[in-house]
């Protein structure tokens, strides 16, 4: 029986840190510069000390009454002060084990370990431990290791510029805003006051830049542009730090992935527990015949701001070689069922309507608020760009989407927002196929096919514009009709 790392005491205590609000309020109420009053406050500090001791004591007893052990066939976790809760996970049921070596944990020789199975809840691990490195080594000895001398051993280490390009492609301003807001929230009032001062100067600078430029770009647009660039850079830097040093090793028993700089992550993934392989492409990647190999596996890529990347940017030849070693190359075949070319409106209708509505709304706003004409025109032009791009993507998707169903596997090609997906999976991983029709589709004899795989949270893989006759034949192959 082993206890978790003593640092877990602090983590447990942190959950009750809100109790410090009571001594803090007492301190604020009685605070004064008078020495006698300060002495009186010190004499009454027993309440503050009692609260702090309670917080630390609660964390200590939670740590003391939590044990884990590595048995011959299972890993076991027992927790609870008054009521014991026991979690037993057989090694054969483990889908992935994740070890996170954060920069602040490494000096204490500690690591955060997550153990996942296919029966877990999305976003949470079946078992999460903060343990010593020595205990982590004991757990790893219970798992298969990659044997370099094996005939089917595969090792992939992308070049540094591949990681940079991958981070560039998959960075976005939205996730950058998340990182930036977290940084500002945790940095306190000093940085806030500093930024307020700098913001005034920046607005003056934006006015000066706008005045010097030949184009009449409003200062607000310049500030918005800088904000987008800064937040994108935060996202880009976060992806670089997460995926730097990426190494993937595989043999017939285990798949091992290492990545990260500030936080080093090591994943042990059981290949048989992979639900499906997802080849993802943007429009640019599709034009250059490159793709990113992702996987669906419980315990990998399920956390916030984490992508389930198995292999970053690959050429078609590299991707075929990797899929061959993963035993998924045989699943890539020509489309047996293609979507109807008459489904043009189904694919492009939504972005086309938005593209037409934006100028109408912009004209109405200019009529209502003529004083901000420049800002409205700029925002409307910027709003048009992503939907024009989406319109082009949907046209390409119309000619590339389709379904291949064979004896023991399926290959599904479709698009979701700005990405193209090629799903490769064993037939027994497919748990549900659903035909969806609106009145417009019923009249034209078309439908949307939704595919659900055996994952923690069923994800809807939608193929639009399928002829109803083709859809029924697909259902017959899986004996669902």
Question: What features would you describe in this structure?
Answer:
- The chain has 481 residues and is α+β, with helices and mostly antiparallel strands.
- Among the domains are: 2-68; 330-339 and 401-477, PH-domain like (Roll); 343-398.
- Helix content is 44%, strand content 26%.
- It has 15 helices and 20 strands.
- It has helices spanning 7-14, 21-30, 35-43, 46-64, 133-141, 160-170, 173-187, 189-212, 219-243, 283-287, 316-325, 344-368, 373-400, 439-444, 468-477; strands at 66-70, 74-79, 85-90, 94-102, 110-117, 127-132, 154-156, 247-250, 255-259, 263-269, 276-281, 290-296, 309-315, 337-338, 402-405, 409-416, 419-426, 430-436, 446-453, 461-467.
- The strands form 4 sheets. A 7-stranded antiparallel sheet has the order 6-5-4-10-9-8-7. The protein has a 7-stranded antiparallel sheet with strand order 13-12-11-17-16-15-14, sandwiched between helices. A 3-stranded antiparallel sheet has the order 1-2-3.
What's the short story on this structure?
It is built from 15 helices and 20 strands. It is α+β, with helices and mostly antiparallel strands and 481 residues long.
Summarize model confidence as the mean pLDDT.
Answer: 82
- Biggest sheet architecture: 7 strands, antiparallel
Q: Can you tell me the CATH class of the domain at 330-339 and 401-477?
A: Mainly Beta
Specify the CATH architecture of the domain at 330-339 and 401-477: Roll
Beta-sheet strand percentage?
25-35%
> Which spans have pLDDT < 50 for at least 5 consecutive residues?
174-196
Determine the CATH topology of the domain at 330-339 and 401-477.
PH-domain like
How would you write the strand order of the largest sheet?
6-5-4-10-9-8-7
- Please tell me how large the radius of gyration is: 28 Å
């Amino acid at each position: 029986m082993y206890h978790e790392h003593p640092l877990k005491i602090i983590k447990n205590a942190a959950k009750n840190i809100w109790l410090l609000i009571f001594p803090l309020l007492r301190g604020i109420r009685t605070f004064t510069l008078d020495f006698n009053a300060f002495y009186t406050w010190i004499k009454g500090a027993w309440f503050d000390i009692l609260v702090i001791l309670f917080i630390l004591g609660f964390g200590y007893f939670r740590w003391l009454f939590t044990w884990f052990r590595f048995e011959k066939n299972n890993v076991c976790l027992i927790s609870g002060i008054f009521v014991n809760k026991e979690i037993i996970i057989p090694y054969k049921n483990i889908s992935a084990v994740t070890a996170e070596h954060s920069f602040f944990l490494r000096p204490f020789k500690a690591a955060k370990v997550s153990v996942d199975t296919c029966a877990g809840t999305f976003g949470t691990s079946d078992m999460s431990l903060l343990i010593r490195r020595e205990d982590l080594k004991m757990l790893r000895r219970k798992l298969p290791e990659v044997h370099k001398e094996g005939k089917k051993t595969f090792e992939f280490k992308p070049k540094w510029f591949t990681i940079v390009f991958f981070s560039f492609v998959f960075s976005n301003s939205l996730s950058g805003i998340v990182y930036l807001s977290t940084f500002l929230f945790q940095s306190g009032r000093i940085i806030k006051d500093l930024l307020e001062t700098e913001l005034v100067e920046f607005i003056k600078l934006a006015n000066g830049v706008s005045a010097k430029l030949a184009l009449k770009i409003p200062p607000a647009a310049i500030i918005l542009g800088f904000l987008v660039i800064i937040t994108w850079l935060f996202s880009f830097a976060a992806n670089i730090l997460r995926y730097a040093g990426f190494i993937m090793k595989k043999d017939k028993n285990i798949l091992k992935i290492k990545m990260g700089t500030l936080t080093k992550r090591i994943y042990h993934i059981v290949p048989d527990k992979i639900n499906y392989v997802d080849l993802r492409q943007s429009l640019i990647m599709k034009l250059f015949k490159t793709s990113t190999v992702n996987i669906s596996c419980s315990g990998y890529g399920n956390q916030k701001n984490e992508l389930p990347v198995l292999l970053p940017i690959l050429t078609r030849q590299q991707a075929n070689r990797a899929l061959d070693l993963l035993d998924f190359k045989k699943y890539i075949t020509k489309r047996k069922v293609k979507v109807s070319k008459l489904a043009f409106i189904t694919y492009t209708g939504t972005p086309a309507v938005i593209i037409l509505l934006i100028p109408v709304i912009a004209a109405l706003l200019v009529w209502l608020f003529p004083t901000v004409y420049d800002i409205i025109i700029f925002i409307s032009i910027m709003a048009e760009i992503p939907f024009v791009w989406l319109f082009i993507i949907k046209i390409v998707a119309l000619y590339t989407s389709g379904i291949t169903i064979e004896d023991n596997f399926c290959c599904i090609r479709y698009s979701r927002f700005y990405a193209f997906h090629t799903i490769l999976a064993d037939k027994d991983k497919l748990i549900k196929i659903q035909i969806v029709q609106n009145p417009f589709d019923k009249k034209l004899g078309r439908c949307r096919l939704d595919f659900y795989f055996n994952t923690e949270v069923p994800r809807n893989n939608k193929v639009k514009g399928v002829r109803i006759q083709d859809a029924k034949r697909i259902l017959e192959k899986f004996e669902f009709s």
